[in-house]
Amino acid sequence: MAKSYDPNNVFARILRGEIPSKKVRETEHTLAFHDIQPLAPTHILVIPKGAYVDMDDFTANASDAEVTDLFRTVGSIAREVGAAETGYRVLSNCGTDANQDVPHLHIHILAGRNLGRMINPA
């Protein structure tokens, strides 16, 4: 089933320049910027420029160049901000059960303190 992309979601509006962001990096296929409500001392979002709802949509439909660029950008930013030295978390919520808030694929880079367990045991 094809997923419906909302072209008026907040990240689409950031990509169009309608909403400002504190940019970390922009490449041909991705945009990285600081989260406006950080959950850790380092909290950066990396998004594809293409209209992908979530990780499932992206991995099924993005080009090899888009996939490579997104993941290389995540890794290089983590190293650039020093997060790779002590550790960092990469997180992408996908769908309703994961509490995805914005229907545009976004990857969180979280670092700068002990982040604890990923989730509590069931």
Which properties best describe this structure?
single chain; 122 residues; alpha+beta; HIT family, subunit A; five-stranded antiparallel beta sheet; 4 helices; 5 strands; globular
Give the structural class: alpha+beta
Could you please say which CATH topology of the domain at 28-111 applies here?
HIT family, subunit A
What separation lies between the terminal Cα atoms?
A: 30 Å
> Order of strands across the biggest sheet?
1-2-3-5-4
Number of helices: 4
Largest β-sheet summary: 5 strands, antiparallel
Shape: globular
Number of strands: 5
Q: Which sequence of SSEs, written as H and E, runs from N to C?
A: HEEEHHHEE
Estimate percent helicity: 25-40%
The CATH architecture category of the domain at 28-111 equals 2-Layer Sandwich
CATH class of the domain at 28-111: Alpha Beta
Report the C-alpha radius of gyration, rounded: 14 Å
Q: Could you list the spans in which at least 5 consecutive residues all have pLDDT below 50?
A: none
The pLDDT mean sits at 94
Report the sheet-strand fraction: 15-25%
- Could you give me the name of the CATH homologous superfamily of the domain at 28-111? HIT-like
Pfam families: HIT
Organism: Azospirillum doebereinerae
GO molecular function: catalytic activity
Motif (Histidine triad motif): 104-108
